[in-house]
TrEMBL record:
<protein>
    <submittedName>
        <fullName>Arginine transport ATP-binding protein ArtM</fullName>
    </submittedName>
</protein>
<dbReference type="InterPro" id="IPR003439">
    <property type="entry name" value="ABC_transporter-like_ATP-bd"/>
</dbReference>
<feature type="domain" description="ABC transporter">
    <location>
        <begin position="6"/>
        <end position="241"/>
    </location>
</feature>
<keyword id="KW-0813">Transport</keyword>
<dbReference type="GO" id="GO:0005524">
    <property type="term" value="F:ATP binding"/>
</dbReference>
<dbReference type="InterPro" id="IPR051120">
    <property type="entry name" value="ABC_AA/LPS_Transport"/>
</dbReference>
<dbReference type="InterPro" id="IPR032823">
    <property type="entry name" value="BCA_ABC_TP_C"/>
</dbReference>
<dbReference type="Pfam" id="PF12399">
    <property type="entry name" value="BCA_ABC_TP_C"/>
</dbReference>
<dbReference type="InterPro" id="IPR003593">
    <property type="entry name" value="AAA+_ATPase"/>
</dbReference>
<dbReference type="InterPro" id="IPR027417">
    <property type="entry name" value="P-loop_NTPase"/>
</dbReference>
<keyword id="KW-0067">ATP-binding</keyword>
<keyword id="KW-0547">Nucleotide-binding</keyword>
<dbReference type="Pfam" id="PF00005">
    <property type="entry name" value="ABC_tran"/>
</dbReference>
Length: 244
């Protein structure tokens, strides 16, 4: 792949005697939506952790982002370089308004000061189509879907080149998943490369242009999503995982 935005070579993460991510290598093209699948415990979140440095980098391997090596860099440096992520659990500040939550991310996370942080917050909330009449509501009073929008906006406030989403559809209803699908396409069309971990296969297959499947920490296969998902080894990994 010429000029990938992200390139991983031999990324490995061990916890004592457990190898959670094993010698993982892949590239992500600028502007694509790249899906990451795999059964529970296959290493997906650990892989995201290694890339963002939150809370740790890889034990071994090399991660190149925008042509620069980022493994071993501090999480805030990686974030400010343009690689932002969301987490499985919504990190909300219940007493802050939606607007304040995103502006705070701009101030502390992205290092934006004064009106720059406010402008970036507005831009991020607009990009996730966050209802303008709810921007002054306290985070605790927002719907599950609005909290998801807020989580994505808080990552987008740094105007990242790559947005990494860890199971964004969890807890959403079917119509909300459809709305999220449309939202991700809009964010991508605005020029943001997306990496997405998702157990809701309908969403993952709908948005991803390529799909990587992990099993027991290693890459099982990678390619065109509809082909990958029919691969007997992928079916077996999921059935084996479900049976375990
Ligand atoms: N901080 C940690 N310390 C020890 N083991 C860990 C740590 N984080 C993850 N693991 C282990 O690494 C393996 C991979 O976990 P990980 O959470 O990355 O899987 P996953 O594919 O994201 O799973 P899920 O789909 O359930 O979120 C698991 O065996 C897990 O218990």
């Amino acid at each position: 792949m010429p000029d990938p935005i992200l390139n991983l070579q031999g990324v490995t993460k061990t916890f004592g005697g457990l190898t959670a991510v094993k010698d993982v290598s892949f590239s992500v093209a600028r502007g694509e939506i790249f899906g990451v699948a795999g059964p529970n415990g296959s290493g997906k979140s650990t892989l995201f952790n290694c890339m963002t440095g939150i809370p740790f980098g890889p034990t071994r391997g090399e991660i190149m982002f925008n042509g620069k090596r980022i493994d071993g860099q501090r999480p805030h440096a990686i974030f400010r370089a343009g690689l932002a992520r969301t987490f499985q659990k919504d990190a909300e500040f219940p007493d802050l308004t939606a607007w304040e939550t995103v502006a705070l991310g701009g101030h502390y996370g992205a290092g934006l000061r004064g009106s720059m942080s406010l402008d970036a917050a507005e831009e991020a909330l607009d990009l996730v189509q966050f209802d303008t009449s709810r921007r002054d509501m306290k985070t605790a009073d927002l719907s599950v879907y609005a909290k998801k929008q807020l989580m994505i906006a808080s990552a987008l406030v740094a105007r990242p080149d790559i947005l990494m989403l860890d199971e964004p559809a969890s807890g959403l209803t079917r119509p909300e998943i459809t709305a999220l699908d449309e939202l991700l396409i809009k964010v991508n069309e605005a020029g943001v490369t997306i990496l997405i971990i998702e157990h809701v296969l309908g969403l993952l297959l709908s948005v991803s242009q390529r799909l990587l499947v992990l099993n027991n920490g290693a890459v099982l296969t990678e390619g065109e999503p509809q082909e990958v998902i029919r691969d007997p080894r992928v079916v077996e990994a999921y059935i084996g995982g479900a049976a375990a």
